[in-house]
Amino acid sequence: MTNFDQFTQTLQQLFVDVHAGLSLPVRRMLALLTASLLDGTPAHLTALAEALPDVETDTNVKAQRVRRFLSTPKISPQRVLPVFLFLLRPLLQALPELILAMDRTTWKKRQRHVNILMVSVYFEGRAIPLFWIVWDRGGSSSYAQWTAVLSPVITALQKQAWATEIPIIVVADREFASPRLAQWLKQTYHLESVLRLKR
């Protein structure tokens, strides 16, 4: 058994241990794709398909399998958030504070808008995505979307025994410059925030 095989089996067991609620085929594919990305495979459909271990299967068939997997509602940020926190624990528990950054990115592909609002945790100058929502229209995000993307992350972090003594601070740029958001964070979760105000 290769190191790659051992790692994918370890990942599959981790999904079970953190009660991600994923079926065996979904666990297996998620573990294979994660291991491939960590092994240096580019995040491209064809490259990921070629990295799958089914040597005798045609690359186009494997690419279709990856495409179907990535579009399934069986995997979602809600289900993988506990896995992210488990994997990141050795890095995050040593930090003096947990900085959560909210940001949005948007682009147009084939005349369709792709809008992603995400919450990431900062570690040594890098933003590691923890949770996100996607919608297919242009324009800015709303207060309801901000709270929807922040709530699961903050709740999950506050439930971690290792994170109870670490302050959590939310940072955001001008798009999220709302005193209402700062008040919600303070009243609901007792968190400090740093928001870049327009004036």
Describe what you observe in this structure.
The structure is a single chain. With 199 residues, the protein is an alpha/beta fold. Helix content is 47%, strand content 22%. The chain has seven helices and five strands. A five-stranded mixed sheet has the order 3-2-1-4-5. The chain is globular. The model has no long low-confidence stretch (mean pLDDT 88).
Strand content: 15-25%
Describe the largest sheet.
5 strands, mixed
Mean pLDDT: 88
Ends distance:
60 Å
Total strand segments = 5
- Count helical runs: 7
Assembly state: single chain
State the order of secondary-structure elements, H for helix, E for strand: HHHHHEEEHEHE
Instruction: Give the helix proportion (percent range).
Output: 40-55%
Low-confidence stretches: none
Class from secondary-structure proportions:
alpha/beta
